[in-house]
Amino acid sequence: MSDKAHEQVVQRQFGEQASAYLSSAVHAQGVEFSLLQAAVQGHGAARVLDLGCGAGHVSFHVAPLVGEVVAYDLSEQMLEVVAAAAAQRGLANVRTERGAAERLPFADASFDFVFSRYSAHHWSDLGLALREVRRVLKPGGVAAFIDVASPGSPLLDTHLQTVEVLRDTSHVRDYSTAEWLRQVSEAGLHVDRHTRQRLRLEFGSWIERMRTPAVFRDAILALQNAQGEEVREYFEIAADGSFSTDVLVLWAGR
């Protein structure tokens, strides 16, 4: 699939569901928001790029503390949701811009911070996007990436990627911590620190948020029921299909 074809899949998948992501508890809540706020504290003139902003939750949390936030996403409908919500919240320093992570329409060294939350697993080329992040970061700038992470084990990885793409056909890959560390380094960024969190996903809302077709929903449930104990225990799969997954929080700098 070409990059353009994949971008069309992403826009189709997220366009109709844009407003659902604004109210999604998974996307609106998280301990990482306080970490991002702490990172920008005291940088009142800073310019922040919210890369793959979705419904804009990162933008809304950091905007009161900085000079400007650019909410950047491939989905025009998502950006419309962000613009409306920012206006409703009185966040005049949030502006939106549309495009792909692999082709940032910004000048070199134009951002103090680049934050990306639950977006990278949709990017068609993680390495290229990371090189773009390095390009637009100022020397000494800080980047933070927060995303669902693969456990790394082939057995567990295969299960995770399968349920992800059945639920959402725009899914590309949940990368392992080792894959993240390698690609961040190869992009010319230096890793400062990284931590792991666990995220509980309630099956009904997880499926409904993407309007996953019944045939794919049933396939996920059938796959979960057919898995061995190692997979079921690691992902803490419940009878209703709810499960837990790893989330990587990685800090890097230029």
TrEMBL record:
<keyword id="KW-0808">Transferase</keyword>
<keyword id="KW-0489">Methyltransferase</keyword>
<feature type="domain" description="Methyltransferase type 11">
    <location>
        <begin position="49"/>
        <end position="145"/>
    </location>
</feature>
<dbReference type="GO" id="GO:0032259">
    <property type="term" value="P:methylation"/>
</dbReference>
<dbReference type="InterPro" id="IPR050508">
    <property type="entry name" value="Methyltransf_Superfamily"/>
</dbReference>
<protein>
    <submittedName>
        <fullName>Putative methyltransferase</fullName>
    </submittedName>
</protein>
<dbReference type="InterPro" id="IPR013216">
    <property type="entry name" value="Methyltransf_11"/>
</dbReference>
<dbReference type="GO" id="GO:0008757">
    <property type="term" value="F:S-adenosylmethionine-dependent methyltransferase activity"/>
</dbReference>
<dbReference type="Pfam" id="PF08241">
    <property type="entry name" value="Methyltransf_11"/>
</dbReference>
<dbReference type="InterPro" id="IPR029063">
    <property type="entry name" value="SAM-dependent_MTases_sf"/>
</dbReference>
